[in-house]
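Title: Prediction job returns without error message
Component: structure pipeline
Severity: low
Priority: P3
Assignee: unassigned

Description:
Job completed but the reporter wants confirmation the result is attached to the right record. Sequence as submitted:
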Amino acid sequence: MTTHATVTATADARRGSSFLRTAIAVQTLTIFFQAVSAGLLLTSSYGATLHDVGSRVMYGASMLYVLAAVLAWKPGGGSPRPVWHATGFLVLASVQVVVGIAHVPSVHVPLGVLMFGLSVLALARR
């Protein structure tokens, strides 16, 4: 026999998991947009603006991923692993911003590729 508390906890866990998947999808899309805007940076006058704005959106998406991971973990008492993944990703995003501002493309570009791959992997796991 299921109790109301069990049903509510299950619904909350599903909502948290759905929000987490959405946050990872948004993050993945913003990183892909950064790759596109990096190409535009090389070929158009507005590419730099798009890449700059996109970097802020991507960083915000990484913070949203951390929030979603915490909200998915805390109410249901599940594994904290997604929180660690999201936090690690936020650290990578922070490094990416720093090396981007410092104009170190030899680190910035490969790190961006790595971040996109990790984000797609995280999305596939959800």
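Comment from assignee: result matches the submitted record. The two ends are 29 Å apart (CA to CA).
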